[in-house]
Amino acid sequence: MKKELETFINDSFKPYGDFPAKADVTRELLTNLQDKYEGLKADGKSDEEAYQQTTESFGDVSEIMEEIGQQPTESSVSSVHTFKRIVLEDADLSDTNLTGANFSGSAIQKTNFDATNLTDAKFSAAALSHASFVGAQLNGTAFSSSDVQQANFDDASLVNAQFKTSALKGSTFKNALIDSSTFKTTDFTEVDFNGSTITNTIFDKSGIDFATFDGATLNNVSFHYSDVRKTHFDGAKMDKVTYEFLKGTKAHLENVTIV
Fold first, then answer.
1. Mean pLDDT (whole number) for 100-113
2. Are residues 57 and 120 in the same domain?
3. DSSP code per residue over 53-116
4. Together in a domain, 53 and 79
């Protein structure tokens, strides 16, 4: 089935041509789809059912990447807030004001965004692995179809942030403030949310195996169609509604405090 999923990914991105982050992004998204497919098979789905549910979870790539498809390739930065389709790996953009910046299609691995204002910024089909957002303002920021693995969001503010169809395996959100945000069809495997404060937030159809919420505070947080049986909540505090929801999904809540 790997070949069929690879064809699906390639066909989804084909209308948008080449861009610097394409190889990294498509590779990681393919890995995510393969993992989801294998998980569905393990749950007893047929090959056809597993493939259909896997591809349906990918979402509408045309919506996610419309800003890339509607713009010509840019070989350089054309304005202070336009960074589309550029290579900016290992750059230092810390402690700057990048409100509304658009990094769609860019290869910006290992870039330092610490303490940067990225309010309403866009990261669509961007390669962001090992990037650092420590203490950054990510309010209204949107990440879609991006490789954000091993990234650091410690102490960051994410209010009305959106993550869609992205890979965040091994990333960390320690002591982050997450409010009114949406995480849809995103891979949070082994992600560290320890000590974070999460309010009015939805994890929708997302993979969170071995993610940790140790010592975190959760209020009105829901996990729609997300398997939390391997997720850790040791020492977490949460409201009763969130607790009962997680209890119903067979999450391990032995050391949780209801507040």
1. 94
2. no
3. HHHHTT--HHHHTHHHHTS---SS--BTTB-TT-B-TT-B-TT-B-TT-B-TT-B-TT-B-TT-
4. no
The residue that leads in pLDDT, 159 or 62, is: 159
Q: Are 120 and 141 in contact (CB under 8 A)?
A: yes
Full-model pTM: 0.80
Residues 149 and 253 in one domain: yes
Determine the Cα–Cα distance for residues 236 and 195; give it in Å rounded to an integer: 8
Domain ranges, residue 42: 2-66
SS3 per residue for 60-77: CHHHHCHHHHCCCCCCCC
Residue-wise pLDDT for 125-147, tens only, equals 999 999 999 999 999 999 999 99
User: Per-residue pLDDT tens for 239-259?
Assistant: 999 999 999 888 999 999 999
Assess whether 28 and 103 both reside in one domain.
Answer: no
Q: Domain total for the chain?
A: 2
Q: Report which secondary-structure segment, H or E, holds 42.
A: helix 22-42
Widest pairwise Cα distance in the chain:
54
Question: What distance in Å separates the CA atoms of residue 130 and residue 72, rounded to the nearest whole number?
Answer: 28
